[in-house]
Structures are given as C-alpha cells and as structure tokens.
Amino acid sequence: MRFHTRKWIKPQDLNPNGTLFGGRLLEWIDEEAALYAIIQLENPKTVTKFMSEIDFKSSAKQGDIIEIGLEVTKFGTASLTLKCEVRNKMTRETIISIEKIVMVSLNEQGKVKPHGKTEIEYVKDRLK
Questions:
Q1: Extents of the domains making up the chain
Q2: How distant, in Å, are the alpha carbons of 62, 89, 91, 97 from that of 14?
Q3: Which of 37, 47, 64, 101 is the least buried, fewest Cβ under 10 Å from its Cβ?
Q4: In sequence order, what are the residues at sequence separation of 6 or more whose Cβ sits closer than 8 angstroms to the Cβ of residue 100?
Q5: Cα separations (Å) of 16 from 20, 21, 22, 57, 59?
C-alpha cells in the first residue's frame, strides 16, 4: 500500500472526546480516493459510488500526524476499486481500514463512462 497524504491533527479536527472526529477522517479519505481516481482515470468527473464497512481500530489525538494509504484492487470497465488504510505516521498503528471504495468515471452528462484503463499508471510515465 502506498501512503500518499499526511494530515496533522488540529483542534478543529477533534470530537467532544478530544480525539479525531470520524467524519473528518472520512472526508479526507473520500477526497484522497477521488484525487487518486481522477489522476488514474484521467477524468475529473470521477465520483464515489460505494464505500464498504469502515473499521475503526484506534484513534488519533491533537498533534498526531496520520497518513492515508490507498491500493488499487480492481479496474472495472468504468470504475476503479481501492482499499484504504489510515495509520499514525509515528507509531504505524492502524487507525482505520476500508476494504473497498469504488470510484466511477462519468461523462459530461453524468452517465457512466468507460475509461479503458487496466493497470496503474504513474504521471511521470505519461510525460515521456
């Protein structure tokens, strides 16, 4: 799994218990998955279709640094399926795992659009 983004937990990210608010973390995961899929599928009109069970394993507190990891598990005709893990950067303890996030490529009319991709591509390889 490749960890792409780091977040520093600040006071505005906390719930009333003083730990990372799950909704904030899910927002970050959804944004990270969208950005990753948009770049992979080369389509800015890519949306979240499905997110499987979310398994909170631990939490984070103010001042912690977390990192969000994504791994491609499947290329569909118009979709990209990802697996996600968020962990504490310093302790490597898993905070959350999501087994399946499905992102779908859309056309200008908002209808499913086949993307023609079958494997991970890196932007550096597209620039050759």
A1: 2-117
A2: 7, 18, 19, 19
A3: 47
A4: 50, 51, 52, 73, 81, 82, 83
A5: 9, 8, 12, 19, 13
Distance, CA of 42 to CA of 44 (rounded, Å): 7
The CATH label, of 3.90.380.10, 3.40.190.10, 3.40.50.970, 3.10.129.10, for the domain at 2-117 is 3.10.129.10
Q: Phi-psi bin for 110: left (phi > 0), alpha (psi -120 to 50), beta? A: left
Please indicate whether residue 86 or residue 123 has the higher confidence score (pLDDT).
86
**Contact between residue 36 and residue 82 where contact means Cβ atoms under 8 Å apart:** yes
Contact call for residues 70 and 98 (beta carbons, < 8 A): no
Give me the pLDDT at residue 126, please.
Answer: 66
pLDDT digits 0-9 by tens, 66-101: 999 999 999 999 999 999 999 999 999 999 999 999
Burial class, 76, CB count within 10 angstroms (exposed 0-12 / middle 13-18 / buried 19+): middle
